[in-house]
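Changelog entry

Holo records now carry the ligand SMILES as an explicit input line rather than a separate metadata file. Below, a converted record for fe (ii) ion, shown in the new format.
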Amino acid sequence: MNYIEKLTLPNLPHDIADSLLEISRTLQHSESDRQWLSDYHEGKITVAGYAIPDVATAGGVNNTPMSDELVGALDAIYKKYFPNQTLYFVCNVMKNVVDSSSIFPPHCDRVRRTAINYVVDTGGDDVTTTFYEQVRLGDDFSKAANINYNDITIAHREVLKEKTWYAFDTQRFHSVENITGSRFYLAILLGSNPGYSEFLQQYPELILKESPYGQ
Ligand SMILES: [Fe+2]
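Structure line, unchanged by the conversion:
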């Protein structure tokens, strides 16, 4: 199983991407959350500010300030790829709020088990997503899991491309490095909240098959 897969889902139309970018500019990071993570890592890394709305797929809660019209437009494009699922659309921002490049440190996501992410703005020329050997222990997904850099082993690194859909396992520890601007992505959460291997099995037609020769 690959650490990350590109998906064949269609790109966001320009007007929708623009509307989402406008929303992303209104999303404020929590400085106390950022400070908490910084303290967790004993101030050894520069932690990015982040606004990752509280989405409990089980409860269908979505705090992203998106109009019904926008959600309807997204649903009209993406719902047919996920029959019998309720789709939740969420805007996420990670941003450099200090005068250097920042890191969103190693974690497993709260609640969602598989990322279906579309990078609208990478937040820098060389922003890297790192996946680690370690995965969450246990199956309580109600809280994010954090881990110290000393306790993890790098498994794979990838610079995610703009305007591309990706899927990866959010319950494998992962981090984002070298954020120099504002990184903004749209996520689709599925009502059934499948684990990553379950997702790959359920939606094989959505996984982009790339030739190793780039053709
Ligand atoms: Fe994450």
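Spot-checked after migration. The helical segments are 14-26, 31-40, 68-78, 196-202. The chain has one domain: 4-206.
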